[in-house]
Amino acid sequence: MTLELAGAAHPMARDPERAGWWTSTAPAADGDRYGFALDGGPVLPDPRARRLPDGPGGLAAVVDHDTYVWEHGVPARLRLRGGVLYELHVGTFTPEGTLDAAAARLGELAGLGVTHVELMPLCPFPGTRGWGYDGVAPWAVHEPYGGPPALKRFVDAAHGLGLGVVLDVVHNHLGPSGNHLPSFGPYFTGAHGGAATPWGPAVNLDGPGSDEVRAYFKSSALAWLRDYRIDGLRLDAVHALVDTRALTFLEELSAAVDALSVEQGRRHFLIAESDRCDPRTTAPRASGGLGLHAQWNDDFHHALHTALTGESQGYYADFARAPMAALAKTLTRVFFHDGTYSTFRGRHHGRPVDRARTSAHRFLGYAQTHDQVGNRAAGDRLSATLSPGLLACAATLVLTGPAVPMLFMGEEWGAGTPWMYFTDHTDPELAEAVRQGRRREFAAYGWTEEDVPDPQDPATRDRSVLDRDERGRDPHKRLLAWHRELIALRRTLPDLTDPDLSAVRVAYDEEARWLVFRRGDVRVAVNLGPKPAEIALGSNGRDRVLAAWERTEAPGRDGLLRLPAESAAVFTDG
Fold first, then answer.
1. Which among 49, 42, 57, 54 has a CA at the least distance from the CA of 28?
2. CATH value of 85-491 in 3.40.710.10, 3.30.450.40, 3.20.20.80, 3.20.20.190
3. N or C: which end of the chain has fewer CB within 10 A?
4. How far is CA 1 from CA 13, 26, 183, 372, in A?
């Protein structure tokens, strides 16, 4: 094995103290190119490359993290409790599609009132355009986005505005193109009956050699938090991590992140994406849980989506039978599937959340995400089919609900631009396979080939870029103001960040399509129906409206709240 550094070859020797490792020492400076030649083969980039200036197929480059001079410290009190997250894709947040261009817009998000920016994956992938979930170098930053220096400038700018930064990382698979990791060791497995993820071979977390594999991904995660001052990580599809060991990788990772928090004197956190509906995902390790700090709650999304749209295909079917009841359940009990039968899965699914012992801040609530928009055939947002009033209702339920709210970029003004699935695979066969696979997937739902956007067409990405000019005209302008108002209420009213799930009270009418929930002295009402609603709430004479989408009076002496069609109101009786 040979280290090829700056045009010179350096022989490597086995490490006598660490099986499977080869070492060599050579002087290097920031930016020097290098790679490894295995058994006389071609020079491959370092699996731990901090930078790949020419993409996954090129040589690695040395990164000296000490050369960057940070301008801002890390803001205090960057916690999930009281937080509002904003999911952002660097490549479509601005026309330029770079971290520097996105950083220049961070003031808008600080003005909106969000507390954390959640970046979709930044690891290098072939080509220029993509979602980032096909990354192949989990220690590096995609060069077309600006590479490592640009990420540091982005985080620095965010912290200067008091914003936290969360990074979406993928541990369950690597991309199919440009992936050299198998050449360096048993990083993938065909065990478990040939188990693999829907996106590629399964990572070896429990087979022979898996100690080093786990260390590889754990160290990568810690590097983002340490070297780039990232505040938290979102872990993609943890349900796809095949791991039969008694001490799971996720427990190891959460323990390591907690230890780093103590070491650095600031709080880091992990947010899981999981479809298991299992409260043990976020339960403390001492209580037999995995110790992750929060998780996305797709059940809340599905209930809200069906209540708003009436859609009932696929996994929406169970929620669509009684969407207002499903919404009420997810507001109070978190999971809709908490041991109930799931027709989509063909079996019972989930486990109840102990509301008396589990904080509401363990869960994220949202109306839209990159998945729930981009995985639709045309990438259509809720704004494509819903009225401004219903969009305002969705915002109200997300931003005043018990879960930590999250918005998907552009949602705050009801963006009219779609957000579609797009790729830039450089392998022609892979590009065609992705194109045809996308068409086959949606043919089952009646979409013709012509109606499914070509993911490889550059125009598909271009059409997905946000149009900020929309913000200056209605209804976008009004929706943006509504989001600001609701976020301000959440920041100023302690009842709206109360973590006590058992204290949330909900009433609803399935047929009339209204729902009211109470959190302390604050009551929130939404009317999704096409007609005004009269809701018997009672009154203590001290009720006052804090915010309303349409003109709404507090309940009068008769105790009735008269709520206009497709509207929402927040009021207090305290």
1. 49
2. 3.20.20.80
3. C
4. 8, 15, 12, 46
Q: Are 490 and 396 in contact (CB under 8 A)?
A: no
Helix, strand, coil percentages (3-state) for the chain, rounded to 5, are 35, 20, 45
- Sketch the domain layout of the chain as residue ranges: 85-491, 504-572
For 364, the enclosing helix (H) or strand (E) is strand 363-365
The catalytic site residues sit at 236, 273
Q: Is residue 475 reached through a cis peptide bond, with omega within 30 degrees of 0 on the bond before it?
A: yes
Can you tell me the distance from the alpha carbon of 510 to that of 344, in angstroms, rounded to the nearest whole number? 23
Name residue, tokens 């729930």: 372
CA 305 vs. chain centroid, Å, equals: 17
Q: Which residues are annotated as a binding site for substrate?
A: 234-239, 298-302, 370-375
pLDDT digit of tens for each residue in the chain (574 aa)? 899 998 899 999 999 999 889 999 999 999 999 999 998 899 999 999 999 999 998 999 999 999 999 999 999 878 898 999 999 999 999 999 999 999 999 999 999 999 999 999 999 999 999 999 999 999 999 999 999 999 999 999 999 999 999 999 999 989 888 889 999 999 998 877 655 677 778 899 999 999 999 999 999 999 999 999 999 999 999 999 999 999 999 999 999 999 999 999 999 999 999 999 999 999 999 999 999 999 999 999 999 999 999 999 999 999 999 999 999 999 999 999 999 999 999 999 999 999 999 999 999 999 999 999 999 999 999 999 999 999 999 999 999 999 999 999 999 999 999 999 999 998 888 889 889 888 888 887 778 888 899 999 999 999 999 999 999 999 999 999 999 999 999 999 999 999 999 999 999 999 999 999 999 999 999 999 999 999 999 888 789 999 999 999 999 889 999 999 999 999 998 7
User: Does domain 504-572 fall into CATH 2.60.40.10?
Assistant: no
Phi-psi region of 140 (alpha: psi -120 to 50; beta: other; left: phi over 0): beta
E runs forming strands in 195-319: 196-197, 200-203, 232-235, 269-272, 294-296
Residue 274 contacts by C-beta under 8 Å, 6 or more apart in sequence? 237, 238, 239, 281, 295, 296
Residue pair 4/37 in contact (Cβ under 8 Å)? The answer is: yes
Instruction: Say how far apart CA 87 and CA 368 lie, in whole Å.
Output: 10
Which residues are documented as binding site? 234-239, 298-302, 370-375
Helices (H) and strands (E) in the chain, counts: 15, 27
Beta-bridged to residue 164, according to DSSP, are 116
Scanning 310-427, the segments in alpha helix (DSSP H) are 317-320, 323-333, 370-374, 388-400
Spatial separation of the C-alpha atoms in residues 366 and 297, rounded to whole Å: 8
